[in-house]
Design brief:
- Two copies of one chain form a homodimer.
- The radius of gyration of chain A is 14 Å and the shape is globular.
- In chain A, helix 1 packs antiparallel against helix 3 and helix 2 crosses helix 3.
- In chain A, strands 2-3-1-4 form a four-stranded antiparallel sheet.
- The first copy, chain A, has 102 residues and is an alpha+beta fold.
- Chain A contains three helices and four strands.
- At the A-B interface, strand 1, strand 2, strand 3 and strand 4 of A face strand 1, strand 2 and strand 4 of B.
C-alpha cells in the first residue's frame, strides 16, 4: 500500500523569503530522502469553498509502503529535512501520513 | 500549469457510513467530472507532528489548467459532485485550489 506524507504549510509572514528557502534549500533536502519515490509541491491559489485560505503550500512525499516512509523519515537526510521544516514552517503548519487508495 | 482541487475531510462521526457513501456514491460522481485528468483519494492514518488527526481523508482532483478546473466544477457533473460534498463533508472540511509545480 502506497503512502504519502502530506505537509500543509500555513501562510508565511514573508512570502518571498519563505519561497526562496523552500525552493532553494528545503526542496533539495527532500530530494535526498532515501526511499522517496516522488514528491509534489503545490501552491494554494484559491479557496473555492469561500473559507479562509488557511494553507499556503501543500507538499506530498510518496513512499512505496509505511515501512519505507518510516525509514526515510528516520534517516539522516529525513531528520535534516524535518529539522528544516521545523525552522521554516509557519505556526499551524501540519503533517499527516495518508494511505493512498488505488 | 497543472492545477488540483485539494479536498480535506475532517473526521466523520460515523466512519463506516461515511466511507460507504464516499466510496460508493461520491467517487463515481467525481469520475464523471468533465476535464478531470485523474484523481487520488487517501485516508489519513497518522499525524507524525504529534498534533490532532484533524483530517480523515484527502482527495485531489487534477486538471490540465485553471480553466479546465473551473469548467469541470461548473459543469452539471461538477455541481452534482459539489452538492454531494456538501451533503457528506463533516463540519470543518475544506477545499482549496493549488497550482502544481513541476
Amino acid at each position: 500500500m502506497s503512502v504519502k506524507l502530506v505537509v500543509l504549510y500555513t501562510q508565511p509572514g514573508d512570502v518571498a523569503g519563505f519561497d526562496e528557502h523552500y525552493l532553494g534549500v528545503h526542496g533539495p533536502l527532500v530530494d535526498k530522502i532515501p526511499g522517496l519515490e516522488r514528491w509534489e509541491s503545490a501552491r494554494v491559489v484559491a479557496a473555492p469553498d469561500g473559507g479562509e485560505q488557511t494553507y499556503y503550500r501543500v507538499a506530498e512525499l510518496y513512499f512505496s509502503d509505511p515501512a519505507a516512509l518510516e525509514a526515510g523519515l528516520a534517516s539522516e537526510e529525513g531528520q535534516a529535512t524535518a529539522g528544516d521544516f521545523q525552522a521554516i514552517a509557519p505556526p499551524g503548519s501540519r503533517m499527516f501520513v495518508a494511505a493512498v487508495e488505488d
